[in-house]
């Protein structure tokens, strides 16, 4: 049967696929729209399978905080190359993923990808279909939420790094500015935990062993190694846990002191740092 331009345009509108791909799919499907959609989706599935092991070091990280500032969401949609991350279809898909993530209350990536969209396709179908269109692997590589008395978000200018920080004991004060400062600190200094209580036992043991080996290499006596290693561990806490870090903008205060100075007793409950590349 004859495939009209209107048919091709309709399929393009419904799937987001390119004009030539839509025409080819409709021709192969003898004009049947549902079969043509399946053909286009299979193209995306083939690409997904073929490129499953490819690295995705480009993409977009997006954040959103709800109206009352108590819940924040961050997602990372990754692709293989920078040009694809700049394509309008990819940017639109990233916004679609964020909207679905905000609406998804389970926090599960699997549930997020299964979320039905307005056109009836699942979010995963949208991703697969775009893979078929552009010929690159696309994947939701991060999906995180933070709930707190006050949540502040920060997006780095390169669009590939986002931070959520949860604050408590704000005392009803306006803390968005200091919250952003703390989020930028997290972006720049990459703390591994809020404070030393959040550092896992394996990391602590590793740092102690490293401290002992360094001291031993320096010729320190065996009976002093444990004490020296503990001193190095305390330095590690100061450098690698958020509340103990020196504030980048003013090294005379720690992050803990910065927050307490803003509102007595204010602290960080949790944070999420998501980056691509």
UniProtKB/TrEMBL annotation:
One of the record's GO molecular function terms: translation elongation factor activity
UniProtKB keywords: Cytoplasm, Elongation factor, Protein biosynthesis
Domain Translation elongation factor EFTs/EF1B dimerisation: 72-277
Pfam families named in the record: EF_TS
Matches recorded under InterPro entries: EF-Ts_dimer_sf, Transl_elong_EFTs/EF1B, Transl_elong_EFTs/EF1B_dimer, Transl_elong_Ts_CS, UBA-like_sf
DNA repair found in the keyword field: no
Gene3D superfamilies: 1.10.286.20, DNA helicase RuvA subunit, C-terminal domain, Elongation factor Ts, dimerisation domain
Record's GO cellular component terms: cytoplasm
Compartments, record wording: Cytoplasm
UniProt cross-references to CDD domains, sorted A to Z: UBA_EF-Ts
Domain of life: Bacteria
Function according to Swiss-Prot or TrEMBL: Associates with the EF-Tu.GDP complex and induces the exchange of GDP to GTP. It remains bound to the aminoacyl-tRNA.EF-Tu.GTP complex up to the GTP hydrolysis stage on the ribosome.
Protein family according to the UniProt entry: Belongs to the EF-Ts family.
Record PANTHER family: ELONGATION FACTOR TS, ELONGATION FACTOR TS, MITOCHONDRIAL
Record's protein name: Elongation factor Ts
Organism the protein comes from: Rufibacter glacialis
